[in-house]
TrEMBL record:
Listed transmembrane segments: none
Cellular component per GO, a single term: mitochondrion
InterPro entries, sorted: PCRF, Pep_chain_release_fac_I, Pep_chain_release_fac_I_sf, Prokaryotic/Mito_RF
Coiled-coil ranges (or none): none
Entry GO MF terms: translation release factor activity
Pfam families: PCRF, RF-1
Keywords on record: Methylation, Protein biosynthesis
GO biological processes: mitochondrial translation
Family indicated by similarity: Belongs to the prokaryotic/mitochondrial release factor family.
Domain (Prokaryotic-type class I peptide chain release factors): residue spans on this chain: 206-222
Name of the protein described by the UniProt record: Prokaryotic-type class I peptide chain release factors domain-containing protein
Amino acid sequence: MQFAQDIKRLKQLKGTESLQNAWNQWNQNHQSLTETTSLLTDADPGMRGLAEDEYQHLSNTLTDMLKKTFPSLLIPPSETAGLSALMELKSAVGGSESSLFLANLLRMYLRLADAKGWKTVIVSKSDTDEGGVKDAVVEFKGEGSYDDLRWESGVHRVQRVPTTEAQGRVHTSTVAIIVLPLSEEAESGGDSDLFNMEDVKVEVMRARGAGGQHVNKTESAVRLTHIPTGITVSMQDERSQHQNRRRAFQVLRARLMDRKLSQEMDERRATRNSLIRSADRSEKIRTYNYPQDRVTDHRIGRTIANLKSVLEGDALEDFMIDLRRNYEETILENVLVEGDHLSAI
């Protein structure tokens, strides 16, 4: 118990380091500004000119700290910074064209992960005869992967001319994406901080799929039902029941954690009239327009006129940076509004 408390205190102290460093930098620059002020009336024109330049530089630095550095330190540290991500992609409107677009998006995220040094595991994937992907579940393991990918939850729309379209008409298709937080796996034989084993119904059955004696003779598929919430997870892609059971509990835990985070956000919104926005999974969050060679994110109103760069994973990070900045600005606004409210009480 004492060890856990010591760890908590160390984390709290570490969390104040950036604020202390900023305060020390402020005092140092402010002291230098005071010393420079006395030189502005120096009789030597050369010395006075140097003092004026230094005074302007220090003034700009202090102003920048007031406008950017200190406000940014008011933003609470992300509680999900250390979490990995589990991404579910499902083809929606558009039939085979939607599946082809899903394959494009899957490749985009895998390229992004490779560039950022994340490890990826394709948990499950259903290919189509046309070369597309009907649905897929991908695990992204790496520091900050959930905080980066969480903005991808929602409906992605593509506008392009299908290869089977003889008249050259532009078709619109969609893919739905859900990104779930992925923490350390809970042991399938014990309780977790998100669920109790007594609340989980575990069923095993024969896997269904294309051919093979393994499919016909072994009960390797696993289905979990979390009774309190009704969440159901089925897994049959692994070769053994043990592997499918582990994967199923991993996905169940991710969905329950996502539910918990959403509930906490809703509670904060209700108690302080928060403006925090999470990705609305029922709305089209981004449009990939092939004829006009552009990608538009509707949440922040930004358009990148280089569709290939986005699909290659390079410019995708530009969207993520802007979405994170937009989120942090909203958080900061809420902190300031809450502070004004408390001071008025």
